[in-house]
Amino acid sequence: MEREKQSCAVCGFLARSVFCHLSEDLLAKLDQGRSVRRYQAGEVLFYEGEAPLAMYCLHDGVVKLVKAARDGRTMVIRLLGGGDIAGFRALLTDEPYAATAEVAEPATVCTVPAATFKGLLQESVQFSLDLLHKVAVELRVSEERMLDQAILPARTRVARILLFLADTSSPSSQRLVVATELRHQDLADAVGITPQTFSRIIHELNGSGILRTNRQHIEIVDPGRLRDLAARDT
Asked: What are phi and psi of 22, to 5 degrees?
């Protein structure tokens, strides 16, 4: 569903996005080139193996990056929330998208066509540098994630992803609720554990009073204790 466009200049994520140093003229070109759409859970932004036609900026919601294994199975390799971008590395390398971007929670997404994206790169050295910084940060995060999955307890990883989803679902609310349509399989993939282990940890956190769960949502009853759990590194 198409949405009325709000100027990039007043976007709440502009200050911490790769577009933060664009001049007024270049922000206007970005506004003119992009489109905005509201996606429902299950819809796909792009498929693994497709030629890259655009990059995507999330305003809200959750998108999961899914990669196919050789045996035909799929695995969630990353979750994206408000302010995140997707698809830009394929545009930089002129290679097919390396994963499928599927909407996991209803999301408002800006689509920036390849021509607009590459035009900004050509016209703004600072934008190119900011994008290079973004690539470097994502590489560091990916390396840390691999290390986390090797050394951090499963409970710590589950706590971190619940806090991420709660912040994405209700960033301005005092009541942290994960109204997630993601399957336990997806969440388990994202933190590198089995679905059975993920379900067991959720049950334990529910029993200890940190969470309150039902079929529709997970409410974080005691965010302080969950944050303490997320901060542990042993």
From this structure: -70, 140
Both structure tokens of 54? 């655009």
DSSP calls for 32-61: HH-EEEEE-TT-EEE-TTPPP-EEEEEEEE
Query: Nearest Cα to 105, choosing from 164, 47, 40, 190?
Result: 40
pLDDT digits 0-9 by tens, 126-163: 999 999 999 999 889 888 878 877 788 999 999 998 98
Task: Pick 169 or 56 by higher pLDDT.
Answer: 56
Enumerate residues 6+ apart whose C-beta is below 8 A from 183.
195
Residue 171: its pLDDT value, please? 47
Asked whether residue 233 carries a pLDDT value surpassing 60, the answer given is: no
Cα–Cα dist 85/18, whole Å:
9
pTM: 0.80
Rounded Cα distance between 208 and 229, Å, is: 13
Of residues 38, 83, 37, 45, the one with CA closest to residue 64 = 45
pLDDT value at residue 39: 96
Distance CA 170, CA 180 (A): 12
Q: How far apart are the first and last CA of the chain?
A: 45
In degrees rounded to 5, what are phi and psi of residue 58?
A: -90, 130
**Which segments of the chain does DSSP mark as H helices, in order?**
24-33, 88-93, 114-123, 125-151, 154-169, 184-191, 195-207, 223-231
CA atoms of 77 and 74, how far apart (whole Å): 9
Average pLDDT over residues 58-83: 87
Q: Are 39 and 109 in contact (CB under 8 A)?
A: yes
| Helix H or strand E encompassing 76 | strand 74-80
